[in-house]
Design a protein that fits this description.
The protein has about 900 residues and is an alpha+beta fold. Helices cover about 50% and strands about 25% of the residues. The chain has an eight-stranded mixed beta barrel, surrounded by four helices. The protein has a five-stranded antiparallel sheet with strand order 2-1-5-4-3. A five-stranded antiparallel sheet has the order 7-6-10-9-8. The chain is elongated, with a radius of gyration of 60 Å. Residues about 1-45 have low confidence and may be disordered.
Length: about 900
């Protein structure tokens, strides 16, 4: 009020001052005015004139009054400006203190000239914390000391001056956004905003956005969105970008896809826009490079608040594989229906609930005695006579109660007569575990059972002579031992070996030899007069004779020799044959079948050592030989188990006129045994022993595995030939063994050559032939070894397509000395080539033999002249392996 009052007094003085000034202007004219009115001063002051004194006095008063008036006006104006400035400062301060931002201002010397209350509140300060003349740097230092600034002052100025500002994390989880602005006058303004909630919302928004994008990116369906206005894609998930092989955001369809595909997409977009509900589904063909894919698409139109189309969302799903699978399933269904309809086993499916037939294949018509279409929907009671129906229903109910497989054989009357059928019933359960369907198969096993009967006979009988074989002989021998054990009864075992059979085969052929064996078997049976007679091997027969021994045995042996010494007329040819016999006696020479037969064999061995056509009875001194063989057998068994055997490899080369020109194309793997005491044991000693004892099966597996493993390691992919014994075909799964070893070793099947002798086919021709065909299907090569030394080599060549024929060394070694051998070799070469088979000659030991074979077109040769059997290390260069790699391979 004082100011206001002062301001009002000033306004009253101003007119008075104006009057005083006006009077001052009139003073110089006062003499005239005095003279006019007759006024004269009454006295004078000093020498001056009184009028002059008055003028000066009045002038001074006027000047002082004017100066005072000016001073008062200036003072009033300053008061007014100051009050205006204070009102403005109060307004600005009030406004800044009510801001949500903290504000700090500094002058050109960086002294703090203003700090609002919000700043103090944000950082927990009071006014006293900011003394006069405090600088901005000191304030930042104080904040850093109190833990409300997590960067240095220098970093604060650098970061806060950036457009995005500086975010400081305060204790308690609050976030402060600081921005620093430099003013033109050298001062500065800093704002501080609490952005905790905004950052929290921003993080939540980012998390939500990231979650939604992650969901869309990881769904297997392609999702894309495009703007209706310009047709450009504004979003595409990862699946869509993989599908298009390109980044599509910001592009139109015609910039991403080929023209035909883009046109189809644009047409689908237009159809979605025209759709009443803004939804359109369709399938289109999309080209991706040279590949065409079928895509099922759903399009949805998104509208804005004015219900105008704004965005289009497209969902793609590649249904090419699904459609392909659907087509494949349909084809598979038709295929399975075709298979079920044409399998040779009768198949019937019936409903458990009412017993009605639901399905029957064509083969079942023989059981149902009607067309399968007519049987569908009928029951057993509708089809069969009451007696058969009751039996069938009873067996069906038994299978249903069992809830498993029920198998039985029974005869069924058919149009072809009474046949034996194998019937299998299987119950199919529903989801609740209750019987739903009954599946029945009927297999005609009449021929199979007859074949089994024949095979059972063949298992214990010789295929050529129909005499019992070795297995049957051992069974009979065991029965005789059991019957005579504990009594004074004794009997003799005779092992009779034919003399001269091999020569007859060589001269007249195996056909004559086979017929001779049949006649020999008949005479042996007649001589035995009902006793046990068996064919133990190719030219060995076994007999059992009771009575006083060894007299009865010797008498039978002499009668047998007499019966066989008479000539045989075979195909108009007169042939003669002898017999050498060994005899053992029960119980003095053994109390078990194996011992008796072995001792008879030992006696036979002694008889052959003396002369042909002789008879020998087992004597105790022969035990040492037997013990030696048994010890050798045990040692061989341990050698196989302890991996004491080794393999040597003999080269096989292309037949050329010189060894240097004969390129090695493969090796034959040959087993060798160095006994820890006996030293080197010849293969001619331990191989027959292994075959007699059955160890050849285990040994053969080891040889095959080692040879394949070794050959698979050769850098040069040469052939590897391995011999298979007939025993390996008779015992175990030889096909499965070869297959598993090929997989185990990684050897290519085409590099493996399996050498067999005709003994594989002699024992059981059909089975042996089937196994050879299965081996060929594995991709391996099969060759016939020792061709020309067996019984029916030519017939076997006609029955099976061998890859290779190996000419027996007996013919090769006589080349140049025996014209017949040369003729046989030429004939075999011509025969093999005529059948499309390659020829290998074994036992090549001279240049003359090599030249002869090369001239006559023999494909390959093998023998000491080409290379002796040796460890593969001696042939490193041939298999592409250096000495260093061989050494590394050995030491692992």
């Amino acid at each position: 009020m004082a100011g206001k009052n002062w301001q009002a007094g000033g306004k009253a003085v101003t007119p008075a001052l104006a009057i005083v000034g006006l009077l001052g202007t009139l003073v110089p004219f006062s003499p005239a005015w005095g003279e006019a009115v007759g006024f004269a001063p009454s006295s004078y002051i000093g020498p001056a004139e009184p009028d002059m004194v008055w003028e000066i006095l009045i002038g001074g008063i006027v000047v002082c009054s004017f100066l005072a008036a000016v001073a008062l006006w200036i003072f009033s104006a300053l008061r007014k400006v100051k009050r205006s400035h204070l009102r403005r400062n109060a307004f600005v301060s009030s406004a800044l203190n009510n801001l949500n931002h903290g504000v700090v201002m500094t002058d050109s010397r960086q002294r703090i000239v203003y700090c609002n209350d919000r700043f103090l509140e944000i950082y927990g300060l009071v006014r006293s914390d900011i003394p006069p003349h405090m600088t901005g740097l000191e304030l930042l230092t104080m904040r850093r000391a109190r833990g409300t600034l997590d960067v240095s002052p220098e970093d604060f100025y650098a970061i806060a001056n950036a457009p995005e500002g500086l975010i400081t994390e305060l204790p308690g989880g609050r976030s402060i956004l600081s921005r620093y602005f430099a003013l033109p006058n050298g001062g500065s303004v800093a704002t501080h905003e609490d952005c905790t909630e905004q950052r929290k919302l921003s993080r939540q928004l980012a998390s939500t956005k990231q979650f939604l994008e992650s969901v869309l990116d990881n769904i297997p369906v392609c999702v894309a969105a495009k703007s209706i206005e310009d047709g450009r894609y504004i979003f595409a998930n990862r699946a869509f970008e993989r599908f298009s092989h390109d980044k599509i955001v910001g592009k139109r369809a015609d910039e991403v896809f080929q023209p035909d595909t883009a046109a189809a997409i644009e047409a689908a977009d237009a159809a979605a826009l025209r759709a009443p509900l803004g939804h359109y589904s369709h399938e289109i063909m999309i080209e991706r490079g040279s590949e065409k894919r079928i895509v099922a698409s759903n399009r949805v139109i998104v509208r804005d608040h004015n219900d105008q189309p704004e965005f289009l969302i497209a969902l793609f799903d590649d249904v090419t594989d699904r459609k392909t699978l659907s087509a494949e399933l349909e084809r598979a269904k038709k295929f399975l229906e075709l298979v079920v309809d044409n399998i040779p086993v009768s198949l019937i499916v019936q409903c458990v609930r009412d017993g009605r037939y639901l399905l029957a294949n064509r083969s079942a018509e023989a059981i149902l005695n009607r067309r399968r279409e007519d049987a569908t929907g009928m029951t057993a009671a509708d089809i069969f006579n009451p007696k058969e129906a009751r039996l069938i229903i009873a067996r069906d109910e038994a299978a249903i109660r069992k809830r498993g497989l029920l198998t039985e054989e029974h005869p069924i009357s058919t149009k072809d007569g009474l046949r034996l059928f194998l019937t299998r019933r299987v119950t199919v359960l529903d989801d609740a575990g209750e019987p739903q369907y009954l599946i029945k198969t009927h297999e005609d096993v009449t021929d199979h059972r007859q074949t089994e009967s024949r095979m059972a006979h063949m298992a214990y009988h010789d295929g050529l002579t129909d005499l019992p074989n070795r297995a049957a002989f051992l069974q009979a021998l065991a029965q005789m031992i059991e019957a005579c054990a504990g009594t004074s009864e004794e009997f003799a075992v005779l092992s009779a070996d034919l003399d001269g059979l091999k020569e007859i085969n060589d001269v007249f052929g195996h056909a004559v030899g086979d017929k001779l064996l049949i006649e020999v078997a008949r005479r042996v049976q007649n001589t035995a007069r009902g006793g046990v007679v068996a064919r133990l091997s190719g030219d060995e027969f076994g007999l059992i004779i009771d009575g006083k021994q060894p007299a009865a045995g010797l008498a039978l042996a002499e009668q047998l020799a007499a019966a066989l010494e008479n000539e045989f007329m075979i195909e108009g040819k007169s042939v003669r044959i002898g017999v050498t016999t060994g005899i053992s006696v029960f119980p003095r020479n053994g109390t078990d079948a194996a011992s008796l037969l072995a001792n008879a064999g030992a006696a036979l061995f002694r008889a052959k050592a003396k002369s042909r056509n002789s008879i020998s009875v087992y004597e105790p001194e022969m035990d040492q030989q037997i013990r030696d063989r048994r010890v050798l057998h045990q040692d061989l068994s341990l050698a196989i188990k302890n991996n004491e055997l080794s393999l040597h490899y003999q080269p096989q080369a292309i037949s050329r006129h010189s060894v240097a020109d004969s390129e090695v194309i493969g090796f034959e793997a040959l087993a060798r045994w160095r006994h820890r005491v006996r030293g080197f044991v010849p293969p001619s000693d331990f191989i027959p022993l292994a075959e007699e004892s059955g160890l050849i099966v285990e040994m053969g597996e080891w040889i095959l595995r080692q040879a394949c493993r070794e050959a698979a390691s050769w850098p040069t992919p040469l052939q590897i030939a391995v011999n298979l014994s007939p025993a390996q075909f008779m015992h175990g799964d030889v096909v499965g063994l070869v297959h598993s070893i090929l997989l185990e070793t990684g050897l290519a099947p085409g590099r493996l050559e399996l050498e067999i002798t005709e003994g594989v086919l002699i024992e059981d021709f059909d089975r042996g032939l089937a196994l050879l065909r299965r081996l060929k299907s594995l991709g391996v090569r099969v060759s016939m070894d020792d061709f020309g030394s067996g019984y029916s080599s030519l017939s076997y060549l006609q029955a099976f397509p061998f890859d290779k024929i190996k000419i027996d060394r007996a013919f090769v070694m006589n080349l140049g000395h025996n014209p017949q051998s040369a003729s046989i070799v030429r004939a075999v070469i011509g025969l093999g080539h005529g059948l499309g088979m390659s020829i290998v000659a074994e036992g090549v030991e001279t240049q003359e033999q090599l030249g002869f074979l090369a001239d006559d077109g023999c494909d390959a040769v093998q023998g000491y002249f080409i290379g002796k059997p040796a460890p593969i290390g001696q042939y490193c260069a041939l298999v592409g392996r250096t000495d260093e790699t061989e050494l590394a391979r050995k030491i692992g």
